[in-house]
Amino acid sequence: MSEENQTLVQRKEKADSLAKLGVKLYINSFKPTNKVEELLPKGEGLQPQEAEPGGRVYSVAGRVMAMRKFGKAAFCTVADSSGQIQVYVKLDILGDEVFETFKKWDIGDIVGIDGPLFKTKVGELSIQAAKIVMISKSLRPLPDKWHGLTDVETRYRQRYVDLIVTPEARVTFRKRVEIIRLVREHLNTRNFIEVETPMMQPIPGGATAKPFKTHHNALNMDLYLRIAPELYLKRLLVGGFERVFEINRNFRNEGLSTRHNPEFTMLEFYQAYATYTDLISLTEEMISDICLKVNGTMQITYQGTDVDLTPPWTTLTMDQALTQVAGIDLAILADDAGVLTLAKEKGIKLEDNAGAGKAKTALFELLVEEKLINPTFITSYPTEVSPLARRNDEDPTVTDRFELFITGRELANGFSELNDPRDQLARFEKQIADRGDDEEIHPELDADYIRALEYGMPSAAGEGIGIDRLVMLLTDAPSIRDVILFPHLKPEAGLHEEKDETGGNPTPGIT
Fold it and tell me: Least packed by Cβ within 10 Å: which of 83, 162, 186, 272?
């Protein structure tokens, strides 16, 4: 029997013995009226061995994180969602029966306590338990407090344990909640309205990515989990909503990495009668403001690299970036054949029908992208790689589009929207004709979106920001899995095969 299974057996036996003594192991009647964070300031004026004047009784509930048992007394540390506090349990206050059963409780149990506050001899604020009850019996031991969950995959797979024993994880996810709240606040104060668009779509669109496919039985039709909400949000511009945004899940059937999870959170927003330069200003203001509110400064460190989010941020065209960062001569960038030749010399593989725009973008991704540490907007993306963006009025080979890069990775993508239905139709048709075996380009044209544009869509600009990557940046998280509560992982080997050695039935276990 493994050590883990042996402990599990012992815990179950202990739970059975407590039940025989009349201890209710899972109750739903204790209602705490206080959070630990409310109590901690009350100890600031108390001296060692002094009780709070008035003897007010407080009621808290939480998980036992540590325990020290003596002959007629015991100390345990109890943590709720706001903090942790010590509890003093004494035989002559609780009585023999309650105290003896309490001594059989374990670290990890969830308990409820009523009692007044006092400070111990060493000056630690504590609750003197006048009443203590079991709320939920823990059958599995928590990881050792000195080591916690040291295996990274186990932290992702058992996030519920990670949140119990890793304070930094709780801080990260609280910051995530705050960041999303501030995004909403920023857009709401600028008269954007939050909407919801379909997550199951008959035709995937709005981005280039391989979708997840499902089937709806009643309608007898295939549906796709959305890869982006873009085309539906722009339909709302047609319908008269002039400022819309959505924060929700996208799904892309792609590989896993430190930057990619097949299910991820995106912010997309669209503003009528605006250009991509308006969104550059909005993005710079929003992200720097959120950083200041969340971290108290705009100078942060990401994985050991200093990053300054203080506006104004750098803006470069793609050609300027290739020249200034990669050192490519402007004469080469101005010559389509020269760009294609240079891409091949750099080992870039392109489709036979790829033009200079794709080659230039691939050169940028290879030679420039990872070097953009401080916030940098890259503009003037080739039309060839921007099927939904408006062509630049002066140079139709590029679009009025930008991407934002920080710490060498893309954080946002935005552009002035293409609202000419005939131009959009031609670009869709070319994209489909050139797709070849590319599974990231859907072979079916979204005719309804073209129909919507034919009713007239106002001039507009739109943008998508990766919420997970933004949280990574502002919490110094090395992997996207560190900022997603339950990231996707390969199936856990043996999870449903381990036997419960107390009775032979399958029970979840770690192998």
Answer: 83
> Which pair of structure tokens corresponds to residue 27?
């109750």
**Rounded-to-integer distance, Cα 385 and Cα 431, Å:** 10
On whether the CB atoms of residues 108 and 62 are closer than 8 A, the answer is no
Nearest Cα to 356, choosing from 328, 388, 315?
A: 328
Burial of 469 (0-12, 13-18, 19+ CB in 10 A): buried
Question: What is the edge-to-edge ordering of all strands in the sheet holding 200-201?
Answer: 200-201, 221-225, 213-216
Residues paired with 83 in a beta bridge: 80
- pTM, two decimals, is 0.90
Residue with tokens 């036992």: 64
Q: What is the DSSP code string of 177-226?
A: HHHHHHHHHHHHTTT-EE----SEESS--SS--PPPEEEETTTTEEEEE-
Q: Identity (one letter) of the amino acid at 54?
A: G
Q: Which residues pair with 60 in a beta bridge?
A: 113
- Angstrom CA distances, 249 to 198, 229, 262, 353, 446, stand at 10, 9, 10, 33, 21
Residues in contact with 400: Cβ distance below 8 Å, sequence separation at least 6, in sequence order = 275, 276, 379, 389, 390, 391, 392, 415, 416
Instruction: Give the number of other Cβ atoms within 10 Å of residue 240's Cβ.
Output: 8
How far the first Cα of the chain sits from its last, in Å, is: 12
Domains defined along the chain, listed by start = 3-142 (2.40.50.140), 165-482 (3.30.930.10)
Task: Give the residue carrying structure tokens 């954007």.
Answer: 192
Query: Encoding tokens for residue 474?
Result: 């502002």
β-pairing, 58-69 vs 110-115, is antiparallel
373 phi-psi bin (left φ>0, alpha ψ -120 to 50, beta other): alpha
* Per-position pLDDT tens, the chain of length 511: 677 788 889 999 999 999 999 999 999 999 999 999 999 999 999 999 999 999 999 999 999 999 999 999 999 999 999 999 999 999 999 999 999 999 999 999 999 999 999 999 999 999 999 999 999 999 999 987 545 567 888 899 999 999 999 999 999 999 999 999 999 999 999 999 999 999 999 999 988 899 999 999 999 999 999 999 999 999 999 999 999 999 999 999 988 888 889 999 999 999 999 999 999 999 999 999 999 999 999 999 999 999 999 999 999 999 999 999 999 999 999 999 999 999 999 999 998 889 999 999 999 999 999 999 999 999 999 999 999 999 999 999 999 999 999 999 999 999 999 999 999 999 999 889 888 778 888 888 999 999 999 999 999 999 999 999 999 999 999 999 999 999 999 888 766 554 444 444 433 333 2
**Alpha-carbon distance 424 to 449, whole Å?**
10
